[in-house]
Sequence to fold (126 residues):
Amino acid sequence: MRASALVALVLGAFLLLDSWDGLYDTLDLPQGLPALTSQVGGASLVALAYLLWSAASRPELAHTAAVTGVIAHGGTALIIGGWLIFRDPSDDLGIDTLGTVILIVVAAILALLAMTLARIALSRRA
Fold:
């Protein structure tokens, strides 16, 4: 759960920086417009990171936090995958090879974390 919390924290911090154009241009990633929507999502991921980190040492939170993580990480992986499969990254997302590779890696990591959290949720049912 702590690994999932760290990933959520990093992604949340990255989304909070959405108004920093240079960062997104350098990494060749699509920028949310308006930045406000991405920043609200980033704040939510930071809150998820706190929940996951806390649940790692509090068994009574483990099931709920794991299910929440499955929804957040799994849903995000599906959304990114959907955009990459059904849209043209260069036209619809405005990215080239680097951005596509980064999004594929992020989606794969999130999918793996979601599967791990699903196993935790199933083993610690309330």
In short: The chain has six helices and no strands. The mean pLDDT is 93.
